[in-house]
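Journal club side-thread
Mid-discussion, someone asked how the predicted structure for our own chain would compare to the paper's figures. Pasting it here so we can look after the session.
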Amino acid sequence: MAKPIIGIIGNYHLINEEYPVHAGGRMNSEAVAEICGAVPVIVPTDPELVSVTDLMEACDGFLFTGGRPNVHPEEYGEDPTEAHGAFDRARDRVALPLIRACIEIGQPFLGVCRGFQEVNVAMGGTLHPEIRDLPGRLNHRMPPDGTIEEKFALRHEVRFTEGGPFERLMGSSVVQTNTLHGQGIKTAGERIVIDGVAPDGTPEAIYIKDAPGFSLSVQWHPEYRAAHDPVSRPLFEAFGEAASAWRAGERPVLLKSA
């Protein structure tokens, strides 16, 4: 059987401040290729170029990546402020409906950082524009200086719900993760289950209640050295298995209400 195809949600970017591209970090592609055992394909997230239907027909799963631009607050009923940072409205218009469509039919996806936040917003949730400004919260942002290794270093623990899917997947109720985000969940969307939190209470791991397919998302960046990290590897392995099953034609049984 051919390898599954995993669409990696790309970010709009300017090379040399003048040449527009849709880009994805190499470490995302490495995790998809090496651990998921899938073909990584960067998705140009612009509704003028792609449709949700076409993407779902072309791919067996989706990795909703991190990115410097944030989800526009209009998507969750709030006005933009300077604290909300930069935006990518074209990505919003592809990613949010794509998430909802995947949940409906059980097509697998994994949300990471901004992708984690997109999943919450897609289900009607809201976001804090700046976690570090909240009383009692840690600074979850990427350190401004240092090497890549220092920026992606393990910085805090995440505690999972006992008996939940993340604890079962990781084989532990407490793990160590990196942290490179400014925003975070304020109110959880419909069917969003917060299954892991940082020591300051910031949501770090979620899944969709009663979702027919793989629907895990994390606020940290598991793609960094994923093949060597005991937390990252099982996450991408499980995602790859779900995409392979989808590729093989295995579909969840959708129960219709009477």
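Post-session note: Residues 89-105 form the longest helix (17 residues).
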